[in-house]
Design goal:
two-stranded antiparallel sheet; 9 strands; globular
Length: 280
């Protein structure tokens, strides 16, 4: 079984790299992509663990980018890593912007009367501290009843507690990934705020070369739509559960939500073939 979209506790997942590899083995996933948000830390730790467990590990990342003023996620996959040094350095610069945002987010939430500290949020994550960790605190302190309300009331882009973060433009994210030898894939397109088919000519002009057709949020109709877009624009296809652990208990590695994820077993092989052709 193959799953190219998962997260560790180095970003907003709850599993350590070792626990994620154990989960993959238990689920029968033998090809696993780790795509933590804006960091390779979980992937780097998992390399020897996956090798020992007989799991083929795929190097990935999920970037937060801006597209027409809205946040859109972009997946990068690096099947060959000979050109990644500059990209990794750029990612480290992006991590600094996240910490700066967190400092300002704490200040804003305290202005709204919410007793939250940066230290509390950072203590919940050994890697990249993000809005989900602030949401956990809001729930536990009784300011909101659940994670969804935390985002709706305070943390989403339209919420009163939101503070901006320096994020690369979608086009820059594509360029950085492609220059690093990677595959740039539009993540969970069903979540994109806008008409994805209408956006595709522009995205492809910028160099987008893949789309995540298989995802736990996609029903059969959405999957067919995105596979059709891939065929029409000559894009590679990626797919994964978007596994986060206990914070998303309904999403399972390899099978998604209630078994709705059916990723072809030869997906990685096809990605390799197409990626090699594009490098020629």
């Amino acid at each position: 079984m193959i799953d190219l979209h998962s997260h560790t506790h180095e970003s907003d997942g709850t599993c350590s790299p070792a626990q994620l590899i154990d989960e993959a083995v238990c689920a029968g996933v033998n090809v696993l992509g780790i795509t933590d948000h804006d960091t390779f830390a979980g992937y780097d730790v998992a390399i020897p663990l996956a090798r020992a467990a007989g799991v083929e590990l795929v190097c990935g990342i999920e970037l937060s980018t801006k597209l027409h003023g809205r946040s859109v996620h972009l997946l990068g996959y690096f099947l060959e890593q000979d050109r990644m040094a500059e990209f990794r350095e750029w990612v480290r610069d992006m991590q600094e912007s996240r910490r700066d945002r967190n400092i300002r987010l704490v200040a804003r939430l305290r202005e709204l009367g919410l007793e939250i500290t940066l230290e509390e949020a950072e203590a919940r994550q050994r890697g990249m501290t993000g809005r989900p960790h602030f949401a956990q605190i809001l729930v536990e302190k009784g300011y909101v009843s659940n994670y969804r309300q935390a985002f709706d009331d305070y943390l989403d882009e339209s919420a009163r507690g939101y503070v901006w973060r320096r994020e690369p433009q979608f086009a820059e994210g594509i360029e950085r990934i492609r220059n690093g030898g990677g595959i740039a894939s539009l993540a969970h397109p069903v979540r994109v705020n806008g008409d994805v088919p209408a956006l595709m000519p522009e995205l492809c002009d910028w160099g987008l070369n893949a789309i995540e057709a298989y995802h736990s949020d996609h029903g059969p109709a959405e999957t067919d739509t995105y596979l059709g877009l891939a065929r029409h624009y000559g894009l590679m296809v990626t797919g994964g559960s978007d596994f986060h652990g206990v914070v998303k208990p309904g999403v399972l590695l390899g099978t998604g939500c209630a078994g709705n994820l059916n990723i072809p077993e030869d997906l990685l092989e096809r990605l390799r073939e197409q990626a090699q052709m594009s490098r020629r």
